[in-house]
Specification:
Layout: E1 2-6, H1 15-23, E2 28-34, E3 44-48, H2 63-73, E4 90-97, H3 104-117, E5 122-128, H4 143-150, E6 158-162, H5 166-175, E7 178-181, H6 190-197, E8 202-205, H7 210-213, E9 221-223, H8 228-240, H9 246-256, H10 261-276
Helix pairs in contact: 3-4, 3-8, 6-9
Length: about 280
């Protein structure tokens, strides 16, 4: 059987099923992704770059469609030495790219108050300066630059790591005392599930589909997507109650097991077998 994954940021959410299929005898797995896609060891990735962006004249409602066509036409990847450890007052924020769709603007506007109210917390921000879903600001090269200009913060306490390897990303989650996840009512990020699986205390936006995964006070905390003051207050409370939040973090880890990779692999295999008529075994 030949399996081709098409994802501009491959492997994205297909990492586990792609790895599983690649280990099976008689299954040839390949992928197509953008020039910046991280790729996956052992799987041949064909990289591409669209020859142009969507036309400005294109109606806004169909620009994403035109962008998809352009991608398809082309088808044929703590610097200062500071060490942070579990138990430190570390706040983490992760997104593929730092942009309003994932609440980066609300997060940045909450930081000045947070840093003023908590004298020792460190903030680790992981994500690139491109845009995945929206558009760049008109008055700055990227959202990080714009929001830093509007919300100056101490660079010795707020660390922008850019895009990092998986090991660094996972370590950041493991030392986090409060992990922030904000999103429009939109596709849920797989990083939220990984944060829960790492036992993070997740402070997330009270939006769909987050509410399907985070249940207030049970396996995480929910705040209004636009309320920067409430967000900073919730972070401060979380940092002050790390011992009290141990049970909540345990429940976060347990809840993530409902979305375990082996269960996802089984469901993917079921769909592949039904669609192809083959019998790929688990």
């Amino acid at each position: 059987m030949n399996v081709l994954f098409i994802h501009q940021n491959f492997p994205g959410q297909f990492g586990h099923i792609a790895e599983h299929l690649a280990r099976l005898a008689g299954v040839d797995v390949r992928a197509i992704g953008r020039d910046y896609a991280p790729g996956q060891q052992g799987i041949r990735l064909y990289r591409y770059r669209p020859h142009r962006q969507s036309h400005k004249e294109t109606h806004p409602y169909v620009r994403t469609f035109e962008s998809g066509v352009l991608h398809g036409q082309q088808v044929l990847r703590l610097p200062d030495g500071r060490q942070l450890k579990t138990g430190d007052p570390v706040v983490t924020y992760v997104a593929r790219n730092l942009e309003p769709y994932r609440g980066f603007d609300t997060f940045m506007r909450a930081l000045p108050r947070l840093l003023a109210m908590h004298a020792t917390c460190q903030v680790v921000v992981i994500g690139g300066d491109d845009v995945s879903y929206g558009r760049q600001p008109r008055d700055a090269p990227n959202w990080r630059t714009k929001l830093l200009r509007e919300n100056p913060v101490d660079p010795n306490r707020v660390h922008f790591l850019g895009k990092v390897d998986y090991a660094t990303y996972r370590t950041a989650l493991q030392v986090s005392a409060a992990h922030i996840y904000l999103t429009y009512p939109f596709v849920l990020s797989w990083s939220l599930q990984e944060a829960l699986a790492c036992g993070c205390l997740v402070i997330a936006s009270d939006t769909a589909p987050v509410r399907e995964v985070i249940h207030q006070g049970n396996n995480g905390l929910l705040v209004d997507f636009f309320d920067k003051d409430k967000l900073s207050e919730q972070i401060i409370q979380a940092l002050a109650a790390q011992e009290e939040n141990i049970e909540l973090r345990k429940r976060a880890y347990i809840s993530a097991r409902e979305y375990a990779s082996y269960l996802g692999v089984q469901r993917y295999l079921q769909e592949i077998n039904e669609l192809s008529g083959a019998q790929v075994k688990s």
